[in-house]
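Key result, reporting period 2: structure in, sequence out.
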């Protein structure tokens, strides 16, 4: 009995001693601060957005008269010159209008000549006192009206000639046809609006990216800033551009305000970074002489099958005359591509910087702090430990908005150092201030936070079995 009591006493003393040791050790190593040095380096502030590529100048070509499209001499990817005929509207109705206008001019001219002769005859009678003044005035008015009718008929004739000219659709600029919106036989109506027939990109060597920038970032964007972007077709290639336009007209979608920013970029040859496998065009493979439906062999103009090296005339050029120049896609960027843009809004070289987390860390969540000298405009730190997660949803010890102060260790306790934050790239932030020096260790967080031990947390707790 005495031996059992002695063993229980020894075990109890060991438990108490171990718990005391762990408690003292836990209090000593309760917080392990994470630190970083204030160093010098470069900071590049960027804005990211998604935009769409288009030609710098893209001209819709329409028709100002209604009618049936009887011919087209251009198609997708056609190279056209200014003034080149690319389409024709049925001119029959407009030819009839022209003939009617010519006949109306002739009638008005004859009426005017007759009115002139009549006026001169009555003027002679008036001079001989054989005609009243009122009768002469009536003849003068008839002559003026005849002359007016003649001028009106000539204007109608000129308008009819112009409308007949509109039946011939011509390219307004040199460029590449990037879109064709009608087919031969289609009727276009120009009564209320001008229907588009083609879209011509004037110069595909100069492109533009139109990107929507959020109102929170638009204040940092300026004309002349550098821009970079990638497209999905060439994920490893970064294209360079420059901001050329910041449009003031806002776009509001679901209460989100954005502004359109235009960036200009020089298109690059595709072969500069995507060369052809054989250094040139892919050789044409011979087509198998398979029998056509009905037992007939395909003739020289039979439609070719996909992947058999078909020539251009048999595939896409439905309205293009043979031998017409065609854009072969030698440039890398195409209209309509999606661009993942990055605009460099600011850059600082060889400046003092700290990890951005240092400006958002507040040790008040872990220890009691008496901050007698808070940073200008900043609220004093809390003197109580934070319990549970932050209401803002941020990590423990991190504030939602950065503070204009840093935290350092003085005699093992956190101490605030006022500073001024500047340019930030997300990872690093520029800092300045009288107390901020290169090489200074600042707090950025906590590596390991151990709660004080209690009897129930002891690995030896929970009582002993006898």
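The corresponding designed sequence is given below.
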């Amino acid at each position: 009995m005495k031996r059992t009591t002695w063993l229980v006493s020894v075990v109890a003393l060991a438990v108490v001693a171990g718990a005391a040791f762990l408690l003292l050790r836990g209090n000593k190593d309760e917080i392990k601060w994470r630190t970083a040095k204030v160093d010098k380096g470069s900071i590049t502030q960027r804005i990211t957005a998604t935009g769409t590529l288009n030609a710098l100048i893209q001209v819709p070509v329409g028709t100002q008269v209604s009618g049936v499209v009887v011919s087209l001499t251009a198609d997708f990817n056609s190279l056209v010159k200014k003034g080149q005929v690319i389409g024709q509207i049925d001119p029959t109705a407009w030819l009839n209008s022209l003939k009617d206008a010519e006949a109306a001019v002739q009638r008005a001219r004859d009426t005017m000549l007759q009115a002139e002769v009549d006026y001169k005859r009555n003027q002679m009678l008036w001079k001989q006192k054989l005609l009243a003044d009122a009768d002469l005035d009536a003849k003068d008015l008839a002559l003026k009206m005849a002359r007016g009718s003649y001028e009106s008929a000539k204007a109608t004739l000129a308008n009819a000639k112009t409308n007949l000219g509109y039946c011939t659709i011509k390219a307004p600029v040199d460029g590449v046809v990037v879109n064709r919106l009608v087919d031969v036989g289609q009727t276009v109506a120009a009564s209320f609006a001008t229907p588009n027939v083609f879209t011509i990109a004037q110069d595909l060597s100069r492109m533009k990216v139109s990107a929507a920038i959020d109102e929170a970032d638009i204040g940092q964007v300026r004309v002349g800033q550098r821009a970079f972007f990638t497209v999905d077709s060439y994920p490893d290639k970064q294209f360079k551009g420059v901001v050329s336009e910041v449009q003031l007209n806002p776009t509001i979608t679901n209460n989100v305000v954005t502004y359109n920013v235009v960036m200009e970029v020089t298109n690059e040859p595709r072969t500069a970074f995507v060369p052809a496998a054989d250094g040139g065009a892919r050789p044409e493979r011979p087509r198998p002489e398979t029998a056509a439906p009905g037992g007939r062999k395909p003739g020289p103009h039979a439609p070719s099958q996909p992947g058999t090296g078909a020539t251009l005339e048999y595939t896409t050029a439905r309205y293009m005359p043979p031998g017409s120049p065609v854009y072969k896609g030698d440039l890398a960027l195409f209209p309509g591509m999606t661009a993942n843009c990055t605009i460099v809004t600011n850059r600082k070289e060889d400046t003092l910087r700290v990890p951005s987390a240092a400006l958002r860390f507040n040790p008040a969540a872990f220890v009691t702090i008496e901050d007698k000298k808070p940073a200008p405009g900043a609220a004093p730190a809390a003197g109580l430990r934070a319990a549970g997660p932050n209401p803002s949803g941020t990590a423990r010890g991190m504030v939602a908005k950065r503070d204009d102060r840093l935290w350092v260790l003085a005699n093992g306790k956190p101490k605030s150092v006022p500073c001024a934050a500047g340019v930030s790239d997300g990872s690093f932030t520029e800092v300045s201030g009288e107390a901020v020096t290169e090489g200074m260790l600042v707090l950025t967080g906590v590596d390991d936070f151990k709660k004080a031990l209690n009897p129930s947390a002891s690995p030896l707790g929970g009582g002993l079995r006898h």
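The radius of gyration is 43 Å. The helical segments are 2-28, 92-127, 133-166. This case is discussed further under Risks and Mitigation.
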